[in-house]
Amino acid sequence: MAEEQIARTFNMRFPRDAVSDPLIYNVGQTFKVVTIIRAATIQDKDCMMALELRGAAEEIEKAVEYFKHHRVEVEALENE
Predict the structure, then answer these.
(1) What are the extents of the domains in the chain?
(2) 2 pLDDT exceeds 70?
(3) What count of other Cβ atoms lies within 10 Å of the Cβ of residue 48?
(4) What global pTM score does this model have?
(5) Could you report how far apart the first and last alpha carbons of the chain are, in Å?
(6) Are 53 and 10 in contact (CB under 8 A)?
(7) What CATH number has the domain spanning 5-77?
(8) Which residues contact 53 (CB under 8 A, 6 or more apart)?
(9) From the CB of residue 27, how many other CB atoms can be counted at a distance below 10 Å?
(10) Any bridge partners for residue 40, and if so which?
(11) Among 55, 78, 66, 56, which residue's Cα sits nearest to residue 23?
(12) Chain centre distance of CA 50
């Protein structure tokens, strides 16, 4: 039986030196999640983004840990 697919949205703050790294692409290739950028702002020192991840809860958690490992601050938002 396939795992239930869910959607979770996160506010993320990327450090400036990681803005040009393909972190979102890598997450989509490494884990069974779909990434959807809901909003993004790039400023002098960092990048803020609202990112939706869709997939099994376990895969979403692995993706979040990947981002944290790469110094991205991750805050979960409530989904509708």
Answers:
(1) 5-77
(2) no
(3) 14
(4) 0.88
(5) 26
(6) yes
(7) 3.30.70.260
(8) 7, 8, 9, 10, 27, 33, 34, 35, 36, 60, 63, 64
(9) 22
(10) 49
(11) 66
(12) 8
pLDDT at 32: 97
Q: pLDDT-based confidence at 78, cuts 50/70/90?
A: confident
Question: 18-75: per-residue pLDDT in tens?
Answer: 877 899 999 999 999 999 999 999 887 778 999 999 999 999 999 999 999 999 999 9
32, 62, 72 from 14: Cα distances, Å: 22, 18, 5
Cα(1)–Cα(50) distance, integer angstroms: 31
For residue 74, the cross-strand partners are: 12
Token digits for 14?
Answer: 């990327």
**What's the chain's length in residues?**
80
Tell me how far CA of residue 59 lies from CA of 35, 48, 54, 65, in angstroms: 12, 22, 9, 10
- Both tokens assigned to 58: 């376990």
